Amino acid sequence: MTYKFDFSGVLAQWPLFLHGAWLTIQLSVIATLLGFLIGTLCAFGRGSHNPWVARTCSLYVEIIRNTPLLVQIFIVYFGLSSLGWKVPAYAAAIAALVINIGAYTTEIMRAGIDSIHKGQIEAAQCLALSRVQVYWHVILRPAMERVYPALTSQFVLLMLASSITSQISAEELTAIANRVQSDTYRSFETYIVVAVFYLMLSLAMRAAFWAIGQAVFTRRRRLGTPM
């Protein structure tokens, strides 16, 4: 049995693929920024002396990391609708991705924060640095530098996982692919094209994170440490 590839009908839909890729980029960027903010706050929260704050952050991380992303998306989209809160697919997709990546970022950032020696913090306090200066220059920035490769990989995985939002009709790249293959009946060719799009997006994200790391973490650049 021979199969003849025919990409003409699929490639003719390139404006749709570009639209889907652009929405995938939007979902990834917004979820990355908000998820990093939530994850960093929860990482500090898990080390808080307030037991309620620490337990709440720990419970959030355990629940999210031990349930599938697809189920979380369905809870946000269908669950809130059942309660009378109609949430657009785009907003539900962002909310679910932010909640998900926030939990994973919490653990990554917590590892970075725990790696900071307490002696460095005490030395900074002895130098009369303000609390904000201690948190930024002595704790947060060095911690982020140490876990930056792990953060980069996690955020790229988030972009790839955004394909699951097609299940709630968010018009990202995979949803567009489903529409194209149903119109052209060329499933194999369609998903090959989509795979190439995701590969290019992954490489572009890694290049962007590498450039950001080079600009922000000058010490790492001087030492030639991989990003």
Q: Quick recap of the structure?
A:
The chain has helices at about 10, 15-45, 50-65, 70-80, 90-115, 120-125, 130-160, 175-185, 185-215, 220-225.
How many helices?
A: 10
Largest sheet: none
The first-level CATH class is given as Mainly Alpha
CATH-defined architecture = Orthogonal Bundle
List unreliable stretches of 5+ residues: none
SS-based class: mainly alpha
Shape: elongated
Mean pLDDT equals 89
Cα-to-Cα separation, first versus last residue: 47 Å
How much of the residues is beta strand, in percent?
under 5%
Helical residues, percent: over 70%
CATH superfamily: MetI-like
Radius of gyration: 21 Å
At the fold tier of CATH, the topology name is MetI-like fold
Could you characterize the architecture of this molecule?
The protein is mainly alpha-helical and 227 residues long. It has a single domain, classed as MetI-like (MetI-like fold, Orthogonal Bundle), CATH 1.10.3720.10. Helices cover 79% and strands 0% of the residues. Helix 4 crosses helix 5, helix 5 packs across helix 7 (131-161) and helix 8 (173-184) runs antiparallel to helix 9 (187-216). The longest helix has 33 residues, at 14-46. It is elongated. It starts with 7 loop residues before the first helix and ends with a helix. The mean pLDDT is 89.
